């Protein structure tokens, strides 16, 4: 963190003394100085407490070197290893240092934040792309992977070194349109002329301007901007086109706006005619099915009834002596046997 006087020196353009600083800057400097002195006093107090604890432990474990008569003092490492528990207990009883103002943190790291330009179609960095993480959800393969964001060109002081709007010669150019469609237009003209600089989807180009899919995919005719599908990320990418480029190509293809309208009306008439033909065909098939069922019913009604013989009383034939029965309607005779 820079000193409070740095900003004032940058504004003035030369080194300044403390007396030349504004009152608020001097107050900040004095506040920081007092805080540093307070932290230093606490640190020195802590060091003195540790030394007192070490001396006390040294006297309890056998006194000084001169009293022991050995003439040699114990090494610090051996001393702390032998009395580790006692040292930790003594340190725990000492009041810890208060949390200073330099340990504060924020939920948002301002140094890593980037300007999104308030746009919902802003390109992301490679590390922010979908599937960049190692987790299961982030590693899922998707059809769209965001490309690395490109930095916009800088605006120079010289007028000849900057891009200018083709309508108003402004240098506030929309670099998204310039990068993808190679059309220098400022943000003001883009917003004030949506009939010229708005973006169209591939479906709108096919329906409104009667363009084919091979023509829309040909980058030599006009460029397009490929973006993720807003309805679902796993669907095919959305292709955006600049309206003025699409209109110019469509008018050349169909002979102007009148030719485009005539072609649109012709296709609508053909569409209505095909729909009428399909309806008549379905109606004819329905009539044929209905006619067949009616014909079958009439045929069954007109079919002759099956004759069933109704025989009368059996009579004995005098010549042969056999019993014979005769049908009342057709007169057919059959021999029968009678059991008494």
TrEMBL record:
Q: Main localization of the protein? A: nucleus
- Asked if Transferase is a keyword of the record, the answer is no
Q: Which residues form the XPA C-terminal domain?
A: 196-246
Where in this protein does the record put region Disordered? Answer: 1-24, 125-146
Bias (Basic and acidic residues) ranges: 7-24
Q: Name one GO biological process term.
A: nucleotide-excision repair, DNA damage recognition
Q: Which GO terms describe its cellular component?
A: nucleotide-excision repair factor 1 complex
In Swiss-Prot or TrEMBL terms, this protein is called XPA C-terminal domain-containing protein
């Amino acid at each position: 963190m820079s000193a409070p006087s740095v900003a004032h020196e940058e504004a003035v353009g030369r080194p300044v003394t403390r007396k030349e600083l504004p009152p608020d800057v001097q107050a900040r400097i004095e506040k920081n100085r007092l805080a540093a002195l307070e932290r230093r006093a606490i640190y020195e107090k802590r060091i003195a407490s540790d030394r007192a604890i070490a001396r006390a432990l040294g006297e309890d474990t056998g006194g000084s070197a001169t009293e022991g008569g050995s003439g040699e003092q114990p090494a610090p490492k051996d001393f702390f290893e032998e009395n580790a528990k006692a040292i930790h207990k003594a340190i725990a009883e000492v009041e810890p240092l208060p949390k200073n103002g330099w340990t504060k943190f924020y939920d948002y790291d301002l140094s890593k934040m980037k300007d999104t330009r308030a746009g919902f179609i802003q390109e992301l960095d490679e590390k922010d792309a979908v599937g960049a993480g190692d987790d299961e959800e982030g590693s899922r393969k998707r059809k769209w992977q965001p490309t690395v964001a490109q930095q916009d060109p800088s605006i120079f002081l010289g007028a000849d070194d900057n891009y200018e709007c083709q309508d108003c010669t402004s240098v506030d150019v929309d670099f998204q349109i310039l990068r993808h469609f190679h059309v220098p237009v400022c943000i003001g003209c883009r917003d004030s002329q949506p009939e010229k600089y708005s973006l169209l989807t591939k479906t709108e180009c096919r329906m409104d301007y009667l363009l084919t899919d091979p023509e829309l995919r040909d980058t030599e005719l006009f460029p397009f901007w490929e973006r993720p599908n807003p309805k679902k990320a796993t669907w095919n990418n959305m292709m955006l086109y600049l309206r003025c480029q699409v209109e110019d190509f469509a008018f050349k293809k169909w002979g102007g706006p009148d030719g485009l309208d005539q072609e649109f009306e012709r296709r609508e008439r053909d569409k209505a005619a095909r729909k009428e033909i399909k309806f008549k065909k379905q109606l004819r098939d329905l009539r044929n099915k209905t006619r067949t069922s009616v014909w079958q019913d009439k045929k069954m009604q007109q079919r002759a009834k099956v004759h069933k013989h109704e025989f009368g009383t059996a009579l004995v034939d005098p010549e042969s002596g056999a019993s014979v029965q005769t049908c009342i309607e057709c007169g057919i005779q059959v021999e029968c046997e009678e059991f008494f």
